[in-house]
Design brief:
heterodimer; A: 235 residues; Ubiquitin-like (UB roll); Fumarate Reductase Iron-sulfur Protein, Chain B, domain 2; five-stranded mixed β-sheet; two-stranded antiparallel sheet; 7 strands; elongated; B: 589 residues; alpha/beta; Methane Monooxygenase Hydroxylase, Chain G, domain 1; eight-stranded mixed β-sheet; four-stranded antiparallel β-sheet; 22% strand; tricarboxylic acid cycle (chain B)
Chain lengths: 235, 589
């Protein structure tokens, strides 16, 4: 069986003064062996003290965003062999406080996407039936609603690292998902939040978020759309 | 032992933040002070993985009626469902779907802008005559879209969230449930949530099977906590094996694939479901399709070098239709099966997917204690979602009825728990509240013995898979119980290597494993006692359904020792709320 070396960021605030890296030899036990399989192998067979997050193991819950050889990704969707390397360096998502090993503090991240009011806002009374929406209007939500809140985008964004109050690409993608919804009437309430100095104007359009998104979504495009909407709106 | 415990007081505390928990929370929060405690962040609960749809007789594409949906639910359950609950759920379904749409769920649409619907296994028109389009869906990301919406809605409603909190003990004073002890995974601190009403929405437990579709967290913790306090697990022997888990990986391929025209093929390229369910073929209920697939495999018509799986073909509906209606499964088959389903079939195999039973409740979600002599409600205790059993799934769950179950009964639990909290005072905590949970945690935190999680869990899932799976016999299950007893003994000589107070996954896994062994024992005992075949429970040694002796719910309680399962029974509620009952008939499709 092929072996690959994993060099993993370790830090336990209970006992470590500073972080360090520890290496493990992992066997690739079947074709398509995933990074999560490898982490589980280390945890269950080599070193039970290694800590990381995981839940659904199929790329939809967003628990297991990590940084592998410098790129943010989900461990449950990434095949080890696809990395094309026998030496793999794993770190926690950058730009977020490390709680322990590969586990970062995501409270701030979750709070930020909630501030953009990510739910349908209605001024007109709802009908007894569904609010009708044409397939064309529904199509506008494709590429927006699939966000799994893994944090890979925001954590890869230098503006997010530099400005602690910056809402970040994830929050903007989520805001645009509702602004673009033909059923929504909440633009007036959301736009001032997005127009803030920690809002969409702080994006420097370097597309790191697009590259990092494991679901191939495009937060930068969402930011551009919000900017256009802001420019077209009179307050 | 002296430990610091932080106390909180809420009117309603919901344990679990999946679809049922969040729907309960967003409703309860509109009336009373409500908290949610959850092992993971809410958007990371297992509901997120639900793919193909949620059923409701909206009739958007063809005529439909809740009464037909109710019939399908009762027949699909192999007549073990409580018919009052089946009526309640199917009648409320349309308004629930509309409520979800109104909070933003991005359903796929018909050309005239209505919610789109597609066929799913076991759903029919006119009491079984033909398949009907009843499943509402958001492409194949229905659960994902729903969970995100419900989370965002409950935050808007002011729900208090305690994420990455692991529940250790359900608290009870003199028969009234009044709180829960939790462990903060992030910093190792203890919290007691004192509440007027507790809602359990802790999800399923299929991680006890080797090939399963479940998230890492589906370890039956809620069931174990309830059973340790003297409550029962209803219909513990009924697990649903979903026909189309990806071979080797377990990730699910939604039944929506067959709803869109996908077909199952054996090694001869034969569409074998025509032999087993001539009327609705590949859209037969899941228990029937799973068993038919296993029969093909056992008869030597499986696919692959080991002849141990089946092919699911969908490429004939066209690449555009696949990418529009099934984009998620396209991605899943590429990553987990290495198959591009627009060109080639997906290798699939029946996969443990759902526990049909759960903590027994009335149709208004109040937890029941009962046996053949009757049943009574437990004050302060409500349950909804996969950990609960209202019971609408009985011996086999229809596809899309799980999302409906968690939405309807989640909402009802929120309404009922809030009402209970408004009408009742706090019941004081007992003096040493949380003592047992602290002791269990302490036992594993200090465990310096021999056995570790990996090997014990592997043995647990292996024995459940081979001996308590799609086909069962007395001999296999007796052997399974012996193995489970040995595994249980290993937990007394266990080793948790990690001693940190911060995010100690090693410790959490030990606690989960301890619960999984209890759950596996209870399920096996229940299956051994049911000497008949019904729905997903198939006994080679008792191949027929036996209504004279087994048209009743199993209730597994623990003996006084807190670990030995005892099997009891409770009557099925055959009387619906307003319509005539559906008497048991032979189940053909």
């Amino acid at each position: 069986m092929k072996k690959v070396t994993f060099e993993i960021f370790r830090y336990d605030p209970d006992k470590d003064k500073e972080a360090y890296y520890k290496t493990y030899d992992v066997e690739l036990r079947r074709p398509g062996y995933l990074m999560l399989d490898a982490l589980n192998q280390i945890k269950w067979e080599l070193d039970p003290t290694l800590t990381y997050r995981r839940s659904c193991r199929e790329g939809v819950c967003g628990s297991d965003g990590i940084n592998v050889n410098g790129v943010n990704m989900l461990s449950c969707m990434t095949k080890v062999e696809d990395l094309g390397s026998d030496h793999i360096v794993i770190q926690p998502l950058p730009g977020m406080n490390v709680m322990r090993d590969l586990v970062v503090d995501v409270d701030d991240f979750f709070t930020k996407f909630i501030t953009v009011k990510p739910y349908l806002i209605r001024k007109s009374p709802n009908p007894d039936k569904e609010i009708y929406q044409s397939p064309e209007d529904r199509k506008k939500l494709d590429g927006l609603y699939e966000c799994i809140a893994c944090g890979c985008c925001s954590s890869s964004c230098p503006s997010y690292w530099a400005d602690k109050k910056y809402l970040g690409p994830n929050a903007f993608l989520r805001a645009w998902r509702y602004l673009a919804d033909s059923r929504d009437e909440g633009a007036e309430e959301r736009l001032p939040i997005l127009n803030d100095k920690h809002g969409v104007w702080r994006c420097h359009t370097i597309y790191n978020c697009v590259e990092a998104c494991p679901k191939e979504l495009n937060p930068t495009e969402a930011i551009m759309n919000i900017r256009k909407m802001l420019l077209d709106t009179e307050f | 032992m002296s430990v610091k415990v932080e106390y909180h007081k809420f009117d309603v505390v919901v344990v679990g933040a999946g679809g049922a928990g969040l729907n309960a929370a967003q409703v309860a929060s509109q009336h009373v002070k409500t908290a949610v405690v959850s092992e993971v962040y809410p958007t990371r609960s297992h509901t997120i993985s639900a793919q193909g749809g949620i059923s409701a007789s909206l009739g958007n594409l063809e005529e439909d009626h809740w009464h037909w949906h109710m019939f399908d639910t009762v027949k699909g359950s192999d007549y073990l469902a409580d018919q009052d609950a089946a009526e309640y759920m199917t009648r409320r379904a349309p308004e629930m779907i509309i409520a979800l749409e109104h909070i933003g769920l991005p359903f796929s649409r018909t050309p005239d802008g209505k919610i789109a619907q597609r066929p799913f296994g076991g759903h029919t028109a006119e009491f079984g005559k033909r398949p009907v389009k009843r499943a509402c869906y958001a492409a194949d990301r229905t659960g994902h879209a729903m969970l995100q919406n419900l989370y965002e809605k409950s935050v808007e409603q002011g729900t208090h969230f305690y994420s990455e909190f692991y529940a250790l003990e359900l608290l009870v004073n003199n028969g009234t449930v009044n709180g829960v002890l939790c462990y903060d995974i992030q910093n190792g601190e203890f919290h007691i949530f004192h509440a007027k009403a507790i809602v359990f929405a802790t999800g399923g437990n299929c991680r006890i099977y080797q090939t399963n579709s479940n998230a890492h967290i589906n370890t039956g913790d809620g069931l174990a906590l309830a059973m340790r306090k003297g409550f029962s697990w209803s219909d513990a022997e009924f697990f649903q094996f979903h026909p189309t888990g990806i071979y080797g990986a377990g990730n699910l391929i939604t039944e929506g694939v067959r709803g869109e025209g996908g077909i199952l093929l054996n090694k001869d390229g034969e569409r074998f479901m025509e032999r087993y369910a001539p009327t609705i073929k590949d859209l037969a209920p899941r228990d029937i399709v799973s068993r038919s697939m296993m029969k093909e495999i056992l008869d030597g018509r499986g696919v692959g070098p080991k002849a141990d799986h089946i092919l699911l073909k969908i490429d004939h509906i066209g690449i555009e239709a696949i990418l529009e209606k099934l984009p998620g499964i396209h991605e899943l088959s590429l990553v987990f099966a290495g198959a591009d389903c627009t060109k080639e079939p997906i290798p699939v195999v029946p996969t443990a997917h759902y526990q049909n039973g759960g903590i027994p409740t009335g149709y208004l979600t109040q937890v029941i204690k009962g046996n053949m002599d009757g049943e009574e409600y437990v004050p302060g205790f409500f349950a909804a979602g996969e950990c609960a059993s209202a019971s609408v799934h009985g011996a086999n769950r229809l596809g899309t009825n799980s999302l409906l179950d968690l939405v309807v009964f989640g909402r009802t639990a929120g309404e009922q728990a809030a009402k209970f909290a408004q009408e009742n005072p706090f019941v004081e905590l007992v003096e040493d509240a949380g003592k047992e949970g602290l002791a269990t945690l302490n036992k594993f935190a200090n465990a310096n013995g021999t056995n570790t999680f990996g090997p014990v869990w592997e043995e647990l899932t292996r024995i459940m898979q081979t001996n308590v799976g799609v086909f069962r016999t007395e001999e296999l299950m007796v052997e399974a119980l012996e193995v489970l007893d040995k595994l249980e003994a290993k937990m007394d000589d266990f080793r948790v290597v990690d001693k940190s107070s911060v995010y100690n996954l090693d410790l959490i896994e030990a606690l989960e494993l301890n619960n999984m062994i209890l759950v596996a024992k209870a399920a096996t005992k229940a299956a051994l006692a049911r000497k008949e075949s019904r729905g997903g429970h198939y006994r080679d040694d008792y191949p027929d359904r036996d209504d004279a002796n087994f048209l009743k719910h199993t209730e597994v309680y623990l003996e006084e020792d807190g670990k030995t399962p005892r099997v009891d029974y409770r009557k099925v509620r055959m009387q619906p709320l307003t319509v005539e009952p559906f008497p048991p008939k032979a189940r053909v499709y």
